[in-house]
Each structure stands twice: as C-alpha cells, then as structure tokens.
User: Which sequence fits this backbone?
C-alpha cells in the first residue's frame, strides 16, 4: 500500500469514527469536539487531493470559526442558563432510513459517473485559479451566496434584538 | 523523509528554547520598566538559569485533576492548545531556504492553524468544571471571534501588496522598501496589526480572560505542574509565532545589511515581541464591552477601508504584482 493510500484510509477511519461519535455521544460538548476532529480530518482529505487552499480555508472557517460559535451557543444555553440540552433521540429507525437513502443515492451517483482513471493534473497555481473562476465563471452563484449570508445575518439580528 | 523528520525535530527544539528564554526576556524587560532588577539569583550573571529552574520546578510538581473535571477533555486541553502554536512554525521562513516548508499558501496556513488554538483553550475552560475557568473561556471566545477578523484583514494587506500568499515571496517583495515604510497604508496597517495581535494574544489591555482580580487566573486556574507549563509554553510560542509573522509581513523578514538573514529575522521578531510587552506593562485592562466595541466599531471598519485603499493602490500599479 502506498503512503498516499495509507494516509487516505487513516483519514477515512478518523473521519467516520469521529462522525459517528458526533451523533452517538451523549455529551453535547464532546459531540462538538468530535465534530472539530471530523472537520480537521476533512481538511486532511483536501490536502491529499493537493487542494491546500481548500484545506486551509476548511480549517480556518469550519474548525476555527464554526466550532467556536457552536461552542459558544452551547455554553450560553447550557451552563449559564442552566437548561440541559438533549441531543439524542429515539428516532433511530427514521434516521437509519434517511442515512440509507443518502448512501444509496451517493453510490448510484458514483457508479454512474465516468471518472478518469488518472487524476487530471491540478493547475499550476490552484489559489489563483479558484480566485479567477469565482470572479468570472461563477460570479453569479458567488454573489447569490453573499446575498444569502447577508439575509442570514439580518435574520440573526432580527431575532437578537430586544422586544419593543 | 528522514531528513524532514530530523529538521522538524531540530526546529521544534530551537523554537521551544527561544520561547523559554522569551519568558526571561519579558520578566527582565518588565522589571527594568518598573525600576526593578527581575530574576537575578538563579545562575550568574543576571539569573540566566531562571527559565530552566522554572521548567524543572513545574516538571516535578504534583499534577492535580479536579474531582468533577471532565477528565479526557481536561487532560487533552493543554496538548490541543500547544499543538497549533508549534505547527505554525512549519511554514515560517527564517532566512532564504531556511525553513521547514515554504508553502504556496503560507500565510493562510498560519492563520488557519492558529485559529485552532481556541478549541484547546475552550476544552481547558470547560473541562476544569470551574466557574472562573468557564467564564474566562467564554470571554476568550468572544474576544477571539471579534479580533480574528481584523487580524486576518490586516494580514491581507501585505498579501495584496506582494501579490502572493507565500511568505518568502512577501519578504522578497519588500526588497526595496519594507511594507511598514509604505506611505500611510504601511504604518496604519502595522498599528492595526499590533493592536489585533495584542488582542488575539489576550495580553493587557485586552486580558479580560485572565483578569486576575476577577477570574483568579482565567481558564488555566485548575491546571498545575506540567499541564500548566504546557499552557504557558503554548501562549508564549504563539506570541513568538505572531511576532515572526509580523516581522515577515511588515518588517522585511530576513532582509537587512551586515548580519546573516536569520539574525535579522530574529531581531525583528524580538522587536515586535518587545513592542507588545511594552504595551502590556504600560496600560490598564479595559472592559469587555469596550474591547468588543473597539473591534467591531473601530478596528474592523478601519482595516476594511485600509484593505480597499490598498486594493485601489495596487490596481493603479503601486504594488509588486508581477
């Protein structure tokens, strides 16, 4: 087994195990820590695909930013307000069915897709290529996303303001 | 492969050694500022063995775990806290060709990895099961979310000027003129960088999460022995890392006449470290709401305007884009 394959299986194992731990752990705070681990492992997968830029952004935004905010939300609601948050439920059958459906869909997609046997060589400067594409080819979805985030931000402000 | 492992081993040890002595530098510097002598007794001359003695003392101290602590989280926290601080040195070029990995996305790697530090900090605050530790960790999250944004934006200004995310290219772009010497943009960006650095290192006047008069010692209050030492080491290592980043981004890294490149680089990093230390020992702590207000109402808009201005300037041909 090549070093790359070994790294892939190692990362896959960590990713699956931590992903399962996120949903199975009874302690909400532990779930978040496992989620952080899963996000870092995802960044590792990006690194294996030679997408260093994506890996760094993944860590910066998800493992650094999103996790911090989630943790903050938990602490404010659970420890300081004193309300115990329950994060497991009994809907294991429904959950299993949905997961199975998603799995089947992914398998169908992967088997139907015609993937090249050898990966195409990545562009010389991936960061530059991403930047250029975002502002030319994909400028419309990019701007739409920005509008979406703005809407989310305004929504959050609306909920957070004091009742008058 | 073997060579890389060896190089990493040497680098880690050098960094830890430097950081150990930075604590000594800070104590001496602060002492002089207050007309004291500072550590003097351990080792002649001038107590130079003090940091070693401190490390040995902490190593042989009893390791106490609070009865109600969340054990795995509590025990892992110092490691998770230290790891990012050490990892950031992987991408720092100390001199031309002297560095572990001069990544194409060097600065992004630095920012991404150091943003993981907060996870370790929070694990410590939560795992201790102590109200002071938890309050401190919450304040830390508040502050770090607020100051990470202006910090990243100021770090982007040299990136724009140099037209690259690679740290060694950013240094090379300063061959003619250091970025800190660029008219107006350079100085303002440097000041914003220093303010954001002080805040992200949680030092006075932004040390609300340590605030010894309110929170005892903040999130590390329950830690003792080697775990406490690891947390201290992590903080100083990160401080040193950010000083190195500042030297690379604004002060021209290894560039300078006479001395070898790495010496210039370390001197510049030391300069930034002392600048931050100077502020730390001169000011008083400010309130939480003032800290957050300063970030969102002053620093962030100011740095965004600065970034826009830099962008216009570069677009008009002022930068170093090839």
Assistant:
């Amino acid at each position: 087994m090549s070093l790359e394959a070994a790294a892939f299986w190692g990362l896959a194992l960590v990713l699956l195990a931590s992903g399962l731990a996120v949903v199975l752990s009874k302690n909400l705070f532990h779930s978040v820590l496992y989620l952080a681990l899963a996000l870092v492992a995802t960044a590792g997968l990006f690194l294996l695909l030679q997408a260093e830029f994506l890996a760094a952004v993944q860590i910066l935004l998800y493992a650094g930013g999103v996790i911090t905010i989630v943790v903050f939300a938990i602490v404010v609601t659970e420890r300081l307000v004193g309300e115990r948050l329950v994060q497991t439920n009994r809907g294991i059958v429904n959950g299993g069915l949905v997961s199975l459906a998603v799995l089947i869909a992914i398998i169908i997609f992967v088997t139907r897709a015609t993937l090249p046997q050898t990966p195409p060589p990545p562009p010389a400067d991936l960061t530059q290529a991403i930047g250029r594409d975002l502002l030319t080819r994909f400028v419309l979805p990019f701007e739409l996303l920005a509008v979406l985030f703005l809407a989310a931000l305004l929504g959050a402000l609306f909920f957070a303001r004091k009742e008058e | 492969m073997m060579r890389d492992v060896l190089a990493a081993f040497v680098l880690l040890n050098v960094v830890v050694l430097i950081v150990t002595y930075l604590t000594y530098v800070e104590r001496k510097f602060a002492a002089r500022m207050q007309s004291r002598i500072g550590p003097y007794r351990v080792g002649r001359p001038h107590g130079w063995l003090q940091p070693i003695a401190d490390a040995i003392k902490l190593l042989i101290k009893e390791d106490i775990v609070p009865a109600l602590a969340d054990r795995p989280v509590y025990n892992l926290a110092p490691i998770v806290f230290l790891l990012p601080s050490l990892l950031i040195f992987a991408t720092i070029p100390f001199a031309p060709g002297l560095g572990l990995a001069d990544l194409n996305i060097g600065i992004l790697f630095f920012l991404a990895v150091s943003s993981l530090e907060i996870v370790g900090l929070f694990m410590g605050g939560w795992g201790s099961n102590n109200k002071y530790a938890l309050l401190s960790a919450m304040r830390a999250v508040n502050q770090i979310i607020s100051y990470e944004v202006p910090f990243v934006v100021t770090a982007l200004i040299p990136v724009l000027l140099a037209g690259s995310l690679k740290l060694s290219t950013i240094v090379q772009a300063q061959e003619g003129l250091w970025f800190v010497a660029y008219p107006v943009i350079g100085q303002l960006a440097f000041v914003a960088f220093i303010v954001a650095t002080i805040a992200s290192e949680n030092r006075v006047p932004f040390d609300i999460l340590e605030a010894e008069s309110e929170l005892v010692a903040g999130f590390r209050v329950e830690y003792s022995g080697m775990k406490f030492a690891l947390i201290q080491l992590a903080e100083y290592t990160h401080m040193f890392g950010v000083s190195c980043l500042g030297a690379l981004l604004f002060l021209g890294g290894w560039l300078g006449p006479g001395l070898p490149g790495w010496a210039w680089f370390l001197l510049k990093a030391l300069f930034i470290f002392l600048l931050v230390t100077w502020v730390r020992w001169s000011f008083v702590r400010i309130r939480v709401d003032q800290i957050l207000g300063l970030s969102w109402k002053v620093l962030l808009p100011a740095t965004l305007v600065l970034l826009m201005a830099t962008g216009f300037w570069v677009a008009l041909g002022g930068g170093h884009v090839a």
